[in-house]
Structure formats: C-alpha cells, structure tokens
Amino acid sequence: MRSTDSKFKIVAICNSSVESAAKSAKDLGLVEGVRVYGNVQDGKMAVADPLLDIANDKDVDLVVCTTRVDRHYTSILPSLKAGKDVFVEWPLGKNLEEARELLNMAKRNKVELAAVGLQGRFDAIVETLKSVLAEGRIGKVLSTTVTGQGMIGGPTELETQTYLTDRQIGATLLTIPTLHLLDTVWEVIKIVSTDGTIIKEKIEKTSPDHVMIQGTLESGAVLSATVRGGAPFKGSPGLEWNIYGEKGEIRIRGANAYIGIVGTTSVELHNFDTDEVETIELEKGTFAEMGPMNRNVARIYEAIAAGDKTILCDFEKAVKRHEFIEDTYNQNNLI
How many helices (H) and strands (E) does the chain have? Predict the structure, then answer.
C-alpha cells in the first residue's frame, strides 16, 4: 500500500485512542497530514466528537480492519452504517450472530465492497491446482485429504495471545487456521456439506486443540481434514494435502496450515499410467517477487482496486463460513 505505484493512499489511521493512533502513524513512517482517530470501544466512542469518527471522514473510501476478532464488530459497524467499503481480517465477527448483523448492515446501507481477508484463495497453489485439475491430469477427483498444524492451539500460547484459549472470543484453532485452510481447499474443490511469552499453567481453555472435518464435494468426492494445534513433529512438513483422482494423485506440502501466509513448499503429481512422479511448478501470477504473505495480501488489494470480486471473499461467503463453524460446534455439542 505504501509502494510508489500503489493504487491506495493512507489518509487516516484509527486505534484505541488518538494518542495510540498517532504513535502507530509515526512508527509506520506515514507522511504528515495523515489523520488519527480514536476507535469505537464497547459501543462508545473513545473520543466524543463525531468529527473525529473515521466513519464520517469524507476522504476515507475504504476502511481496513486488522483488530482482534472480538473487536471487529464495533470497529467496522459505524463505517458500514456510513456506507463505506470495508475490508476486514477473517473471521468477520466473533460468532455467527455478529457476522450476520454485519452482512445485513452492509446490505441495508448498499455497501459496494464488503470483504474479508481469506487470502489463501489468492495463493499460487490455488491457480496451479485449478489448472492441473482442469486439464484432467488426474481424472475425476475421488477424494482429498489434508493434514496440517495450525501453530496456535498447542500446549502453550504466548502471554499476549491468551484470548486464543477462550472460544467465546472467536479466535480458535477451528475458526482461524482450520477455516483459512479449508477456504483454500474450498476455492480449489468446492465443499457443500459437513459432518462432522508462555501463558499461566492450567489456564481454563474452551477452544479446541484438535479439529477433524469430514465432508463431501460437489462432485461426490470425499473430504477429510485434520488440523492439530502446535508445531509439527521436528523435520516433518506441517501441511500435507493430497488430491486423489482416477488417473493420478497430487501431493502438496508446506510449513503449516496457513497457506495464505507461508505458501507451500512442493507440489508433485503421480501419474498412475506411467507410475512417474512429476514436480509441478507454481503459477507465477502478480507480485511473484514477494513472499507468500505479502503477495497474497497485495493481490487482495489489487482486486479491490480493480473492483474484481471473482476471488474475493465477501460478507455473504464469510457468513457461510461462520455457519460452518456453528454447525461444527453444534454437531459436537459445544454450543
């Protein structure tokens, strides 16, 4: 966003107070003239003067929210009411109820662009796999199996991230790494139904540390996904994703379940007829010179600037993913 050829200009920054916003602007090296605002907290303005409300700033066309998930709702609600375009990190809200309310608010105020940051769908692996599958190189897809480490949800959490242990806050192994991973899989092979510093010792934990999902695909193929908290076994890949077809099988490996952040390390195709294994090169695409995290986020902003919503995850799709989370908890008597 700050590159010389960027299609965006940062005109304002909002934080928990005007003072912290000013410090953020300074730390980020933003040019003088960038306005600073206090955020909405607990339904009340940190600064009472409505002229200091970022939602009322006429020069702000797009509001980007990167707060903790349980603060998304109060942070973006005023901007949606003002009819501004909004891009918010996934999850949309801390639960399905918040997500639906934000979607309805966006519709009610005719917000043109309301999207969430599921950037894995912009990763090179998605474009590459779509091309390979479209060419019929493994025939009809019969099943897909993915196993990954979600990094969070293990035996310990950073002291600054103890909120990850409370399911009510909405930031869990299921809602963040598992849904990021499944959304990437979803973009390749559509899923239509499902079944399925260190913190203090012995802190109460309501968020899961192991997630197993069984489902079906539009084609009738089977999906099986397992995401475990913590780090992988030393020396082992933190992600193994197999797509099994009638004529061959694809194996994708990576560092962990966050494809949208760390990318993948290898893609191989086993041709059953020749019994040969071929290494598949990733599609280059735009911003290929960047690392996966920056590249995929840059692609989101590029799509926003171009008004291209074909890959963007809008609030409608975000609510469907929240429904998926709710269904998963319900099926396991966790609601």
Answer: 8, 16
Q: What are phi and psi of 48, to 5 degrees?
A: -70, -30
Tokens of 221: 């193929």
Round to whole Å and give the CA distance between 158 and 83: 37
Cα–Cα distance for residue pair 153/132, rounded to 1 Å: 34
- The architecture (CATH level 2) of 12-118+297-314 comes to 3-Layer(aba) Sandwich (3.40)
Distance in angstroms (rounded) separating the CA atoms of residues 85 and 100: 17
Q: What is the pLDDT of residue 156?
A: 75
CA distance 312 to 190: 15
Convert 297-315 into a string of H (helix), E (strand) and C (coil): HHHHHHHHHHCCCCCCEEH
What's CA 145's distance to the chain center, in Å? 20
Domain spans of the chain, in order of start: 12-118+297-314, 120-282
Entry pTM: 0.81
The model's pLDDT over 247-259, given as tens digits with 9 standing for 90+, comes to 999 999 999 999 9
Q: Within 13 Å of residue 229, how many CA atoms lie on the same side as its CB?
A: 18
Residues 41, 33: contact at Cβ < 8 Å?
Answer: no
In the predicted model, what is the mean pLDDT of residues 39-50? 46
Angle 231-233-239 from CA coordinates, rounded to 5°: 70
> b or e along 124-156 (b: 16 or more beta carbons within 10 Å of the residue's beta carbon)?
bbbbbbeebbeeebbeebbbbebbbbbbbbeee
Locate the DSSP E strands across the chain. Answer: 12-15, 35-38, 40-41, 44-45, 62-65, 85-89, 114-117, 141-149, 191-194, 210-217, 222-228, 239-245, 248-254, 266-271, 276-279, 313-314
Q: Give the CATH superfamily of 120-282.
A: Dihydrodipicolinate Reductase; domain 2 (3.30.360.10)
Which tokens sit at 37?
């605002």
Tell me the per-residue pLDDT of 260-276, one tens digit each, with 9 for 90 and over: 999 999 999 999 999 99
